[in-house]
Each structure stands twice: as structure tokens, then as C-alpha cells.
Design goal:
Helix 1 crosses helix 2 and helix 1 crosses helix 3. This protein is α/β, with parallel strands linked by helices and 324 residues long. Helices cover 46% and strands 16% of the residues. The chain is built from 14 helices and 13 strands.
Length: 324
Amino acid sequence: MTAPSSGGADLDTLARVVGRVRGGIEKVIEGKSDVVSSALVVLLAEGHLLIEDVPGVGKTMLSKSLARSIDCTVRRIQFTPDLLPSDVTGVSVFNQDTRQFEFRPGGVFANIVVGDEINRASPKTQSALLECMEERQVTVDNTTYHLEAPFMVIATQNPIEMEGTYALPEAQRDRFMARVSMGYPVESSEIAMLSSHTGSNPLDDLEPVTDASEIRKLIQIVGQVYVSEPVQRYAVALTTATRRTQELALGASPRATLHLVRAAKAHAAIAGRDYVVPDDIHLLSRHVLAHRLLPSVEAAMSGRSTTAILDQIVGNVAVPGVRA
């Protein structure tokens, strides 16, 4: 079976646009090209991104710079303990003049939604995002409102050990395609940051380099990337292995398998290929799967992290030697 081509010209267009977006973001975020690449993969795979790390390492700056690089609607939601679900989804308000209820959209009605410190809100408010993240729609008072494509939630959160945080429910974590950590910058990047960030805010100089319409076209190009049966079986083998190990109380869901393949298609397209190879799956497995897993009691007591368990699982699954 031959791989259908998504077109060399299409992939050239995708590479050109992605290069412009990446260049803009990296003017703001110093020395984090791998994290920027992960964010772009999630955008083109129609997923949602969770950025987790300690305060002050640039989580919000990354999400804002990605949003500003695209000429589309952007909304920011600051999650706090007193934030209500209606603040996120919207609310129906009675209009005294017309004697009718009018819907006032909440913060999710945008192409890119930046959710800052999502795990500082109560679980009830966090759950308000479930429907819109999975089905790209919001239901309020028995009326469904569809969200315009592209739609991406970029949420930041502090580690759960930080004061005043709530753990994200399993269903919430499972809706994020990938989780990345910023990490502390290397010394040279931190010195460069002092020069570029102390005089002015680099976000103020960041201009949009593409728009929502072009992003929709790129998403269609990614959708045409070919995934062979051996590569599909490899992705399923990885997620199945997480469900069978005794070290995990909760393995990866079928949604995780779907997200892994979709992310791999975007990764392949950015690399200039119209087909997915096993390395695409392998490279993305930690970002896509680790945040969905829960260690067993025994593994947690022995200090084994889900990332370490996943790395061992991935290392034990045979990689297909057939080109996609």
C-alpha cells in the first residue's frame, strides 16, 4: 500500500509558516526550542497544551507569545479559587428591555485560550473546560454554542506540591494532548534574557506572522499525513503496555493513543515528511502519555515517577523496522 502524498508544495508552505511563528516565539523565549516545537506540534494537531513548572520560568510568556504570533481571537483566563464555571463558559442574563435571556460568552470563546494557573481553581471550575476541550462546543441552559476553529487551550500550572493548588482530575488531564515543562534556562540564555527583558517587554514588539485561516489550512495538511499500519500498531502497543504494567494504577486511554498519532502526524509534517515514522511516536510518547498516568501505591512509595515508569515501558516495546 503506497502512502498518499500531502503535496510537497503544501509541506513547504507549512514549513515556512511554522518557521515564522517559531522565530517570533524564540525572540521572547530564550533557549527553549524543544518546548516551542512541542507547542507548535500541539497547535497543528488540534490539541491542547499543558505547561507545568515552578513560578517564574516563562510558562505564561510562552503561551502569550504563541497567541500573539497568530492574528486570531485570544482570551486569557486567570484561574483563582473564587472563579466560577460561568466565568469560563458564559452565562444567560435576563434583558429587561427585550424581556428575554441573552447569552454572554465566557472566556473560552476564542481561537486561543490562555488559562493561567489552572490548578488554582476549584475542581468544579476546572470541569467547565471538559466539554469545550473535547467537543469544541459549550452547552449553557440547554443551548449548544460551537467554538470556531482553530481552538486551542494553553494552560499553565504549578507543581501540585505548591501551596494553594488543586490536582487536575484524570478526565481533565486526559484532554490535554501534551504536557511540557519549561525548566530553568541555561546561563547564557538567562543573561540574554536580562538584556532583552529589562529595558522593555519583548511581547510588545511581537507582530502576528499568520492568521486563523492559514492555521486551518495547515491543520488540513497535517490531516493528510500518512500513518502506516505498523506505526499504528506501535502506538497501540505503547498505550496497551501502560495498561498492563503493575506499576501503574491508571494507564493511557484510547484518547491518548489518538492524540499520540495526531501529534506524530504534525511532527512529521513539520519535519517535511508526508508520512509518520516510528521515531515520531517514540519522541512524543513522554510529552503525550506521561501526564495521563497514575503510579500504583507500591510504585509511589518506592519513589518511582510516572515518567521513569513510562521510559522503561517505551524501552521494552519493540520498534517496527518498516518504513511508514
